[in-house]
Each structure stands twice: as C-alpha cells, then as structure tokens.
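step=encode ok
step=design start
structure_in=
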C-alpha cells in the first residue's frame, strides 16, 4: 500500500489519520508520508522514496536512526523480558548517569513522555512551594496536559485562557502567560500575583514556535526573578536536554534551574521522560513525600537500555556536540546566504544542533514576531524540499534537528535543493 492508501485507511480509525496532530501534514496541505524504516540520516517511505531527515523523530535521534549501539542494547534487554513492574538495575544505572551529567540534579524520576515529566514537575513545584500559579511563555510548548494548554488571557491580573476544548477555565486561571524574551512581562506577573507563583517554566531555547533563541540575559533574568520571589525555575529540557551539551541548556548557558524536565534523547527513541531536582525538592515525591506520582511502565527495562546506551555514547564522545553544531551552522548559514542571494525575506536561527527558518524580515524573539512569518511560503518550501528528498518538520512553528549521522554530503545536497527552490521563487 502507498502513503495515500494508508492515510485513507488511517483516517477511518485514527482521528485525522494520526496519533499526534503535526504528523498529519495539515498545515502544509499534503498527505503524510508513511515511513517504513529509518537508518542514519535517512528515512524511507512506503512509496519507495528516501529522505534526508531533519525531524529525527522530533529530537530523540541525536546519533541518527538505528544506531548499532542502541539497537544492540535494546536487543539484549528484550532477551530478558519486556516489563517487570519492579525495580531493575538499568533504572539505577541511567539515574546515576543523568545525575552525574546534569548540573544541579541529585535525584531523578523516570516517566514515559515529556508531557508526563512536565505535568509531574509542575505538581512538584506546587507541592514544594505551597503555591498554585505557574508562569509560562506564549509559544512555549510543554506537552498536552491541562495546565500547559493555556494561552494569554485578557490582562496581567487575570490568568490565562484555555487553549484547547476540555481545559476548565478555572484551571487555566492558575497559569499566567508571559512573553518570551520579555523579562518585564514576567516581573509584572510576579508583581500582580504576590506570593502566589510556584514556578516559572520555560523552554530555555524555544523550539516549538520555530526556533527562537533566548536573548542574552533572559534566562539569568528569570533565575533572578524566581529567586527574588521565592519561586522555582523549571527548565523544560525535553528538547535541549543532552542536545545542546551533556548538561543541556543549564550547562550551555551556565544557569542552574530548580527542576529540569527531560524526554526524547534520554529514551534513545523509546517512550521516556524524566524530571529531576536537588534532593530537598525530589524527596517530596511519593513514596518519600506527599506529592503523588506513579507509573506502571515507568523505568521500563527496554526503554532504560536504549536511553542508557545513547547517554553513555554521548558522555564518551562529547566531541560530537561541536561536530553537530558545526554541521547545523553550515546548514543555517547556507540557508541564510541562499535566501539573501535570491532576495527572499528570511530569518534563520541556529543554536547547537537546532536550526529554523522564518519567512519574515523581522527579528524573531517571541510568538508575536514568529507569527509574522509567511506560512504559505513555508508550506511551499516544505513541499518543494520533500519532493527533492529532504524531510523537514511539516509546520512552520517547529525546529529542524541535525544529528551526528548527517554528513557533509547531506548538508551539501540539502543546500543545493534549497538553492533550487529559492531560485525558482525569485
Ligand atoms: N516539552 C517540550 C519542550 C516539548 O518539545 C515536548 C514535545 O515536543 C514536550 C514537552 C512533550 O513531550 P512528549 O511529546 O514526549 O509528551
């Protein structure tokens, strides 16, 4: 069956034909490609096409697809059974490794997704501080649980508004929404909700409104505001964790958060999330403390084996970070030059192995400026690249992920393709 036929079948039994919305290609108006296998920097669809993949499963595949060391670790783990529902050594191994690699974390709890990690971290912050309100940023994504599906409300004194049907307004009231890279908007929320804010949660590098780097001083400013108001700072490192550095954005920007959430890379491609903090905070979690959180499949041995293999590889090959960042920089500067040569208004960002392009001449620092991008142009860009065998995220407001498996030849081919697309436009 080809992708179109599979999509027809899928739409009859899966809402929108997919198990996660952005996969449906709706914002670019195309039929999603059904993928049959992946290897190195490439994915292969059921229609017989191969693509250089800059989605990398939305981040986990930092070493590329089907990495032999991770596959072998999974195969070994499978030989011992799939799930125990009881403690196993692999859970201790990965916890020790993460605590060792990441600044400021004494203890970690494994869960099954990034959403679960953030949901639990928010509950922990509320439990620790005895306060209910959380400040988040417009355009930052923290998974699909109720308290984070909230957008800007009508004023600084009120909470946010539900950003999805099914989110009670009374719950959204506890989530205050600030503007990314705008410390004054955070300070004003603190001032108008004195003694009520449990935590500020932030994507240290925003990668869910396209790629928007933090402005110099922004993350330190958040740290200072949290300290001033005795609130916790939560770094949502589901994307940046083990991607920017072995110590994630905390290490990259030399800022220590109070609670850090992880997902994606720590599972090596298996469904995993985690949250960690200093002992005093983590010891509030059940069974030690009064913040309840549990999971039947948490610490699953096969998932732990995959994550452990990937993290060990990263720890032992730290040079990879400089290499991938150089590859991403080559891609980003090539895109930028090509757009400039062809007179196309584009803003390109690159942080470590993350890249992004907006079709706007404005500097993009927030959701408001990200939204000045011409999404029609992005849809045309996406379709033309797909046609040439280059697979980027099928939506403007996502990032491009570069892995250690992307070769110079991959980048050269990608840039040639981009050049052709832009030259057809101009
Ligand atoms: N936090 C961030 C920063 C994310 O990018 C995502 C997902 O992309 C999540 C949380 C939610 O993770 P998951 O999709 O594993 O639930």
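sequence_out=
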């Amino acid at each position: 069956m080809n992708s179109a036929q599979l999509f027809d079948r899928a739409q009859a039994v899966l809402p929108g034909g997919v198990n996660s919305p952005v996969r449906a290609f709706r914002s670019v108006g195309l039929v999603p490609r059904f993928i049959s296998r992946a290897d190195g920097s490439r994915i292969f669809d059921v229609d017989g096409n191969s693509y250089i993949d800059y989605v990398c499963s939305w981040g986990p595949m930092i070493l590329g697809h089907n990495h032999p060391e991770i596959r072998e670790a999974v195969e070994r783990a499978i030989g011992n059974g799939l799930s125990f529902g009881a403690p196993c050594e692999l859970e201790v191994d990965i916890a020790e490794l993460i605590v060792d690699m990441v600044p400021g974390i004494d203890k970690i709890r494994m869960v099954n997704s990034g959403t679960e990690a953030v949901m639990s971290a928010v509950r922990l912050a509320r439990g620790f501080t005895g306060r209910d309100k959380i400040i988040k940023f417009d355009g930052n994504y923290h998974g699909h649980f109720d308290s984070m599906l909230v957008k800007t409300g009508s004023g600084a004194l009120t909470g946010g508004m539900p950003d999805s049907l099914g989110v009670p307004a009374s719950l959204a009231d506890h989530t205050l929404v600030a503007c990314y890279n705008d410390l004054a908007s955070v300070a004003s929320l603190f001032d108008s909700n004195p003694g009520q804010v449990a935590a500020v949660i932030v994507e240290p590098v925003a990668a869910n409104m396209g790629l928007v780097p933090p402005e110099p001083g922004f993350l330190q400013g958040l740290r200072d505001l949290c300290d001033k108001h005795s609130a916790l700072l939560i770094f949502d490192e589901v994307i940046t964790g083990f991607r920017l550095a072995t110590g994630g954005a905390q290490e990259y920007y030399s800022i220590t958060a109070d609670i850090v959430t992880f997902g994606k890379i720590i599972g090596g491609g298996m469904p995993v999330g985690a949250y960690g903090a200093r002992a005093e905070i983590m010891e509030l979690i059940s069974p030690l403390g009064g913040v309840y959180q549990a999971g039947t499949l948490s610490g699953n041995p096969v998932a732990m084996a995959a994550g452990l293999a990937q993290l060990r590889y990263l720890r032992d090959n730290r040079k990879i970070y400089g290499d991938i960042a150089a590859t991403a920089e080559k891609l980003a500067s090539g895109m930028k030059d090509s757009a400039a040569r062809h007179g196309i208004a584009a803003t390109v960002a690159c942080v470590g192995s993350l890249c992004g392009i907006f079709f706007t001449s404005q500097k993009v620092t927030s959701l408001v400026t990200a939204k000045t991008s011409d999404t029609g142009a992005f849809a045309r860009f996406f379709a033309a690249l797909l046609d040439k065998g280059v697979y980027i995220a099928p939506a403007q407001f996502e990032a491009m992920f570069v892995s250690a498996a992307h070769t110079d030849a991959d980048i050269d081919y990608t840039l040639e393709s981009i050049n052709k697309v832009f030259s057809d436009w101009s």
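step=design ok
step=annotate ok -> The radius of gyration is 21 Å.
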